[in-house]
Amino acid sequence: MSTDQIDLEKIHPELRDVYRHMPNLPMHNRLFLGLFNRLAKYVIKSPKPVDGVTITNQVIGSASVRIYRPCGELSGAGLLWIHGGGLIAGSVDMNDRDCSLYARDLNLVVVSVDYRLAPRHRFPSALDDCVSAWYWFQASALTLGVDPERIAVSGQSAGGGLAASLVQQLAAEGGIQPAAQALVYPMLDDRTAARQELDALKHPMWNNRCNRAGWSWYLGQAPGAADLPAYSSAARQIDLTDLPTAWIGVGEIDLFYPENCEYAARLQQAGVSCQLVSVPMAPHGFEAVAPRTAVARKFRADFAQFLREVLTLA
Length: 314
Hints:
Blueprint: H1 16-20, H2 30-43, E1 53-60, E2 63-70, E3 78-82, H3 96-106, E4 109-114, H4 125-144, E5 151-156, H5 158-173, E6 181-184, H6 190-193, H7 208-219, E7 246-251, H8 257-269, E8 274-279, H9 286-289, H10 294-310
Parallel strand pairs: 3-4, 3-5, 5-6, 6-7, 7-8
Antiparallel strand pairs: 1-2, 2-4
Helix pairs in contact: 4-5
């Protein structure tokens, strides 16, 4: 994307230099997507160790998980993490440092899910993998030093949407429920992708053309249909009662901002405690691409504080 396509004045001053030179990759092009995902396997290397954290991998059915375990005495809390990538890209590798720091700084065990991606694997493959990871974490909790009732679910972008769908499905299935859901600018509503007038807004990082491709390949049909399978698009869920307490963080110029605000309001109307953190002038992925800025550090601190409170961390 050339710079004249981005209105830099709308972007937070701390973030402008980063987004000034950042192209919007054509993830809606299936040929490009395939090349991108193949190259990513070589560009993103094995996890770099962080002092005070051990990292192991475990295959669970069609998916795998990566476990980040802090050294020393544990708090007894856990976090199930789900990576982003628009349901069509990304891997467990992309959040290695984040998950390591969550484990070390919050003193909790983090389990990150490497789920199957569309278009090769359509719904419900990714969600099934997240469900499998949850039950594996539950079954392994005591071995990992975790209280099964002190595990929160979280995810970023598409991973946030999968986290929202996961807690909905778990609520219907019963059993031990997540202690909380922390959704980082989550991809919640396929109907956004069906609004072609949003294409002209040219959102940085993840625009609506990419969004439409991600939802189309994940659902196996055009987004915005009258009916969809349960849990395929979290915002379509009618009954939101009895879901875990929630935190939703999103930038105000993110493509997902309106759907995130609406979902937060619906959770609150359903009697679910939900904290909405809106970041002025922040685009999609801002805290990932500019982690050292004050606005990103504040966002991450809010996220961490929520987890400290709901998981009763010191």
